[in-house]
Design a protein that fits this description.
A two-stranded antiparallel ribbon has the order 1-2. The protein has seven helices and two strands, in the order H-H-H-E-E-H-H-H-H. Helix 1 packs antiparallel against helix 2, helix 4 packs antiparallel against helix 6 and helix 6 crosses helix 7. The protein has one domain. It is 67% helix and 3% strand. The protein is an all-alpha fold. 16% of the residues are buried. A hairpin with a 3-residue loop joins strand 1 and strand 2. It starts with a helix and ends with a helix.
């Protein structure tokens, strides 16, 4: 039996955008970042996860790779062969929804509660971190589908 990756991602997509708080939403974005970095690493043939320094992230990546091994034929030395085209529609929908969550015109009620005054030890406000996390995820999806993401931005 193979792991239903598409169904999992669809459910996680819904879960992500139904989060009742900004903090919970940001936690979900961390998982999306791990998945996208892993996908990009596999597509580049690197095979090394970009976030290998954290043990729990490595475990998540290994679990995803194992699931993908069952879903796609394995390449000789680079791990599973990943057809990133099969993720295109879902990841473009992810970018659309993420853009909505970053804009005051569609998420102003939630965004107004994010601290944009007090800075952390890295001289960033909560707003800075929130915005940077979102932009980084859009950048990662843009690496996979540059033209399609740019079309959504204009």
């Amino acid at each position: 039996m193979t792991f239903p990756m598409h169904e999992f991602l669809e459910q996680f997509f819904r879960f992500t955008f139904m989060q009742p708080s900004i903090e919970a939403f940001q936690d979900c974005l961390k998982t999306w970042s791990i998945f996208l970095e892993h996908l990009l690493d596999r597509l580049s043939g690197n095979g090394e996860p970009a976030t290998a320094s954290k043990q729990h992230q490595q475990q998540l990546i290994n679990a995803a790779a194992n699931a993908l091994n069952h879903a796609a034929p394995a390449a000789a030395s680079t791990g599973p062969v990943i057809d990133h085209g099969r993720y295109k529609a879902g990841l473009l929908a992810f970018v659309r929804e993420l853009l909505k969550k970053l804009m005051f015109s569609s998420s102003g009620q939630d965004l107004k509660d994010i601290d944009d005054v007090n800075e952390n030890s890295e001289s960033q406000t909560e707003w800075d971190v929130y915005l940077q996390d979102g932009i980084e995820l859009i950048r990662l999806v843009t690496e996979l589908y540059p033209e399609s993401v740019l079309e959504q931005l204009v």
